[in-house]
Design brief:
The complex is a heterodimer of chains A (about 850) and B (about 250).
Chain A: H1 2-13, H2 15-38, H3 41-53, E1 58-63, H4 69-79, E2 85-99, E3 104-113, H5 114-120, E4 124-128, H6 131-136, E5 140-144, H7 145-149, E6 158-163, E7 166-177, E8 182-183, E9 187-192, H8 194-203, E10 210-217, H9 226-237, E11 245-249, H10 250-293, H11 295-303, H12 308-349, H13 359-381, H14 389-393, H15 416-427, H16 429-457, H17 461-464, E12 473-477, H18 483-491, E13 496-502, E14 507-510, E15 517-521, E16 535-536, E17 544-548, H19 549-555, E18 562-566, E19 571-580, E20 590-592, H20 594-600, E21 608-613, H21 619-630, H22 647-666, E22 672-677, E23 680-685, E24 691-696, H23 697-741, H24 743-752, H25 756-794, H26 802-823, H27 832-836
Parallel strand pairs in A: 3-9, 5-7, 15-20, 17-19
Antiparallel strand pairs in A: 1-10, 1-11, 2-3, 2-6, 2-10, 4-7, 5-9, 6-7, 8-9, 12-21, 12-24, 13-21, 14-15, 14-18, 16-19, 17-20, 18-19, 22-23
Helix pairs in contact in A: 1-12, 2-10, 2-12, 2-13, 2-23, 3-12, 4-9, 10-12, 10-13, 10-16, 10-23, 10-25, 12-13, 15-25, 16-23, 16-25, 16-26, 23-26, 25-26
Chain B: E1 4-17, E2 20-33, E3 37-42, H1 48-55, E4 63-68, E5 71-72, H2 78-88, E6 89-93, H3 104-113, H4 120-132, H5 137-140, H6 149-161, E7 167-171, H7 179-194, E8 198-202, H8 206-209, E9 214-219, E10 222-228, H9 237-251
Parallel strand pairs in B: 3-8, 3-9, 6-7, 7-8
Antiparallel strand pairs in B: 1-2, 1-4, 4-5, 9-10
Helix pairs in contact in B: 3-4, 3-6, 6-7
Classes of the chains: A alpha+beta (about 850), B alpha/beta (about 250).
């Protein structure tokens, strides 16, 4: 009890320092608790939504035209999968929609009937309009819960699908729980009426889109891989089905869905580690100083019969109580933040978070902080044992100096305050180590945040730069159109900076791995603007491919290795020439030349013009000019028959409508027609249709990345502010500790005529060498931590912004100086007479 | 007639003590002349040190005025007082208050360099003064904890006079010294005074007081006795001692 009273007395005496340490431990506990309580929440929410939906862990869609019953049997015979559900769906790679607010959206869509959905999952409905209202709906649609949770759609809202100039309006009947296909990357499974399904079977056919056979099964623990299954299917049918085979598994969708959440969690863990380190170092620093400052009191207590262990414990209790208060506040904060985190996680994964608050984890985090503080406090406080009463009375040997005189004043030049500060610093280098570690740790995190803030501060531009592909406007041409000629014409349009011939991106498999990838094709990679070469060189020949760092991490393929790419019915060997990085498609993209792509997919034809618009030119402006040059797009001519005018004009419009349908939907390349009306011959052809469709990848990227970018930006700003406060608290503690330790010296100097400002300057300048060195070290550390973070979170290579870091370094150093100077203001309270009469 | 260097008008200094005001200096009018060696004596708690700190700008008075020459300093801010002290005052303390982490020479120069630029002349002056008080080259490199009490106080004196202050204040400078060291230190004060230095010293020691030219006796916050003497060494020592003793006995010392 008497020890506790001693501790309480000390706590009362050092109130401000106690508040500072409680703040550090509070921040540490808060971040650690939020990290520990939420790291598994998203994963659990994922698993729970699977269980609640009655979903299987794998779904395979195979284009109906390519499907054979043997494919299903293969799963049973060759892969040991027993419970396989078979049904149908209509797949549309990227379908445009207009939502309730008139906003354009694009979703990869899988349409199923209710009957089919009940085969795939249990079709557990959540929010919906009333049954009576549903019955009245002409075109009801049930959307996976992502739309409700993340996109903010409500039952009764409209969602209009748009294809080839036609609109297919739906009313949202409600939402349902689903396992797979509830993710922006993998697409969405939508339940529609039987009539609408039949219509979509007709509307969406051709190319990779169209009706599919759906196979649902649990593949975990079996030998199933999509690559092995495709290989066996192809060996049976003798035709390539790779491009018509879509697989989604819980592992893949989860990885895609959780990557941003994991990024935030790593952020939190990293920052809590830094504040923990700072808090522990500060406590150790404070205990050492306290023992030295209170050496005489320790001597008195020992003389009175207190054992050194008891005195040590009084220090330990003091800091354990302080840290305990901080930990409790941090834990309370974590409890309060929990609903907010749940909402954030729900929004990001589009699934309900079922675990409300991980109370145990929060308490564990708080306890861990207190235990750690106790351990380090015990180690430091044990120093009391070193001082028997007599040594303590003499204040140890701390006040005895026999060292070499560093920076003798007789040789000094310049400002005396700076000289004295440097002299003091050089004579007390040991105590600078703790300060340096704290500033390096916190400085690293601050510089990390500054660059992250700048990175995300430009909207989605930062994330866009990591996509590993050029984000352009794509003009899709009708079959048979000379892409190179059109490219030249588009390049001449004002507002166009560059136009390149491209291919409609196809999905390719890589033999021996389960990680296939989308092809990225450039004739000359020097034309690309957003593909960064990390190692090796870009592919130049038709047998060369560039892969991503993520692929290297996933399957171990490296530069110089050969891989076999399976395209449409072919297996082609490629040599890996280079390495890049991409956050898209889990970083599995494959980069090759046009010739290379044609080797893998011999039937591929260039039918895309990638258009790079000049700054300030909008998509609408470009489309207007494109329209002027090439006439109506095929998709916009589908409803051209409704125009008014003379009989001939109306007949031509009606004919155009038919031509547009045939060319844009059925791949017809050339049509001539002749019509006789009242003896008048009207002829025409399809050659004036050149452009099938135009779409902006930027719109799609904005749809997917804007929220993440905004959250990341605010997160970085918040973290930077918190860390700046942590640095300020640390420096404030150091400065006030300096004032306290040097009370006598400062009083003497005041007596000599040094003003408070002179002395504050000396204390601030004294910390500058260690601050400057620490900030420089922190810059290098931040460079590596930043790169490592992105590599770990996304497998992407992102460099620290060096000019910005240099500016941030200067600001950080100035901030440290200002904080120390202001904190040293305690000197003002020391009067010379107070010193004399002590 | 010597001109006044320090003057007070109705000077008061009180301290708050557990809610009650303790008036230590009460309406004190005082005039200290240039070139005088003024000794302030009095019983314990009479306000000697408080008066010294107020006169020297170490502490602010509660009421009243303090004139340094023609300048009033009682309303100066703490920083203005610090600047005033560095330009005009030197201090010698009973506890010496040397900076433990600095050598003897650096202790002296720390006091000097806040006022003057670092020149070879300044360094030589510091070395010469240290030599004058009996500290050789070897001693200059020592740290305070390697010095005897007398040596430390001599360093304190050199530090106090390095800037040629207009007035030198000393608070019981021999209070912590043995008799031999005290004599050495007092000899230095006498020597400095002979060279024209104005000194104000607080002491309760008769031997120390004998070195002054004027003794002020304080009681209950006011000057109750003012005794003048010739400069030390210019009269008979016995007669000087007898005169001062009689004055002090009269004061009730």
């Amino acid at each position: 009890m008497k020890i506790l009273r001693l501790s309480l007395f000390k706590l009362k005496k050092n109130k401000k320092e106690a508040v500072a340490i409680a703040f550090l431990t509070m921040i540490t506990t808060l971040m650690l608790a939020v990290f520990m309580a939420n790291i598994s929440k998203a994963n659990k929410a994922y698993d729970d939504s699977f269980a609640q939906a009655g979903a299987k862990d794998t779904i395979v869609f195979i284009n109906k035209d390519k499907y054979r019953d043997e494919y299903k049997q293969l799963l049973e015979t060759d892969f040991g999968i027993t419970d396989i559900t078979e049904t149908e769906a209509v797949f549309v790679d990227l379908l445009d929609y207009v939502n309730n607010n008139g906003e354009d959206r694009s979703y990869k869509s899988f349409f199923v009937t209710e009957k089919a959905e009940r085969k795939i999952e249990d079709f557990v409905k959540t929010d919906k309009i009333s049954d009576e209202e549903i019955e009245k709906l002409e075109h009801p649609i049930w959307l996976p819960m992502f739309f409700h949770i993340s996109e903010g759609y409500k039952p009764g809202d409209t969602l209009t699908a748009c294809k080839n100039g036609r609109e297919y309006p739906f009313t949202i009947a409600g939402f349902y729980k689903t396992g797979l296909y509830n993710d922006p990357g993998y697409g969405y499974k939508m339940v529609i009426s039987d009539n609408d399904y039949e219509l979509f079977k007709l509307v969406f056919s051709g190319g990779y889109d169209g009706e599919c056979t759906v196979l649902c099964f649990d593949s975990e623990g079996t030998a199933y891989t999509d690559e092995a299954h495709i290989e066996k299917c192809e060996s049976i049918s003798g035709e390539g089905i790779n491009a018509y085979y879509y697989r989604d598994g819980v592992r893949f969708e989860k990885a895609n869905s959780l990557q941003f959440i994991n990024m935030f969690m790593y952020f939190l863990a990293f920052f809590s580690g830094i504040t923990m380190l700072s808090a522990v170092l500060m406590i150790m620093h404070r205990i050492t100083n306290d023992i030295q400052d209170q050496m005489q009191q320790i001597g008195v207590l020992e003389a009175l019969g207190y054992r050194s262990r008891e005195i040590s414990l009084s220090y330990v209790y003091e800091y354990v109580m302080t840290a305990g208060i901080g930990a409790v506040l941090g834990a309370v904060g974590a409890f309060l933040v929990s609903p907010l985190m749940n909402k954030g996680i729900q929004n990001m994964i589009g699934r309900p978070v079922t675990v409300k608050t991980e109370g145990g984890m929060i308490l564990l985090a708080g306890s861990a902080v207190v235990v750690l503080v106790t351990a380090f406090a015990l180690i430091k406080a044990a120093k009391v044992k070193k001082y028997p009463p007599v040594a303590a009375f003499r204040k140890g040997i701390r006040t005895h100096h026999f060292d070499r005189n560093i920076l003798p004043l007789e040789k000094s030049k310049g400002n005396i305050n700076v000289t004295l500060a440097m002299k003091s610093f050089l004579g007390d280098m040991k105590s600078a180590v703790g300060t340096a570690v704290c500033i390096i740790a916190a400085g690293t995190a601050i510089l990390f945040c500054v660059t992250a803030m700048e990175f995300f501060g430009h909207g989605i531009d930062g994330l866009m730069s990591m996509t590993g592909d050029d984000i352009v406007t794509e003009v899709e041409l009708l079959n048979g159109v000379d892409a190179y000629a059109v490219r030249d014409e588009i390049a001449e349009i004002s507002g166009v900076r560059k136009a390149l011939v491209d291919y409609k991106e196809g999905y390719l498999s890589v033999k021996g791995t389960e990680y296939g990838g989308t092809a990225v094709i450039f004739d000359d990679y020097n034309d690309s603007e957003n593909i960064k070469l990390i190692d090796g060189r870009f592919p130049e020949h038709d047998n060369e491919v560039m892969i991503t760092v993520q692929r290297k991490q996933l399957v171990g393929t490296d530069i110089g290795d050969s891989i076999v790419i399976k395209g449409s019915g072919t297996e082609t060997k490629f040599i890996v020439t280079g390495m890049t990085s991409s956050i898209m498609n889990n970083g599995t993209m494959l980069y090759m030349t046009s010739e290379g792509y044609c080797r893998a997919c011999p039937d591929a034809r260039p039918n895309i013009i990638s258009v790079y618009l000049k700054d300030g030119v909008t998509q609408e402006q470009f489309e207007e000019k494109l329209n002027e040059k090439f006439g109506t797009f095929a998709k916009d001519s589908v409803e051209a028959g409704n125009v008014s005018g003379t009989l001939e004009e109306r007949i031509r419009a009606a004919a155009d409508e038919k031509l547009a349908l045939l060319t844009s939907q059925y791949g017809v390349t050339n049509i001539d027609y002749a019509v006789v009306v009242d003896g008048q011959l009207i002829t025409g052809n399809s050659r004036h249709f050149i452009i099938k469709d135009v779409f902006s990848l930027m719109t799609l990227a904005e749809q997917e990345l804007t929220n993440v970018s905004a959250v990341s930006e605010y997160g970085s700003i918040g973290a930077m502010i918190v860390l700046s406060v942590v640095v300020a608290v640390i420096l404030g503690l150091i400065a006030s500790s300096n004032v306290k330790r040097q009370r006598r010296k400062l009083g003497i100097m005041k007596g000599m005529g040094y003003t408070s400002k002179d002395l504050m300057k000396q204390i601030a300048v004294k910390t500058m060498p260690v601050t400057i060195v620490s900030v420089i070290i922190a810059s290098f550390a931040a460079k590596y931590v930043y790169s490592a973070f992105w590599l770990m979170a996304f497998g992407a290579y992102v460099e620290l912004n060096i000019p910005l870091t240099i500016i941030a370094d200067v600001i950080l150093a100035a901030f440290c100086y200002a904080v120390t100077y202001i904190s040293a203001g305690k000197i003002k309270a020391i009067s010379v007479t107070e010193l004399m009469t002590e | 007639m010597a001109s006044s260097i320090l003057r007070t008008e109705k000077l008061c200094k009180s301290f708050s003590n557990g809610g009650t005001q303790q008036h230590v200096i009460k309406n004190l009018d005082l005039d200290i002349n240039e070139g005088d060696f003024t000794v302030i004596m009095g019983s314990s708690g009479s306000g000697k040190s408080t008066l010294l700190y107020a006169l020297s700008g170490m502490d602010k008075p509660t009421l009243g005025k303090i004139f340094f020459g023609d300048t009033q300093i009682q309303d100066y801010s703490n920083d203005q007082l610090a600047q005033f002290r560095r330009g005009n005052c030197g201090f010698v303390f009973q506890s010496v208050y040397l900076l433990n982490d600095q050598t003897v020479l650096d202790n002296v120069l720390t006091g000097a360099l806040i006022v003057q630029k670092n020149t070879p002349e300044l360094v030589n002056k510091a070395k010469t003064l240290l030599k004058k008080v009996g500290l050789n080259e070897e001693d200059r490199k020592k740290y305070p904890n390697q010095l005897s009490g007398g040596e430390a106080q001599r360093v304190g004196i050199v530090r106090a006079i390095i800037n040629d202050p207009k007035i030198l204040f000393a608070d019981e400078p021999t209070g912590a010294l043995n008799s031999a060291s005290s004599r050495d230190v007092l000899d230095i004060f006498t020597e400095i005074h002979k060279n024209g230095q104005s000194i104000v010293m607080v002491t309760h020691d008769l031997k120390t007081a004998l070195r002054g030219t004027r003794v002020l006796y304080l009681r209950d916050g006011g000057v109750v006795g003012d005794y003048r003497m010739k400069p030390y060494g210019e009269d008979d020592k016995q007669e000087r001692r007898a005169g001062l003793t009689a004055f002090l006995e009269e004061m009730g010392w």
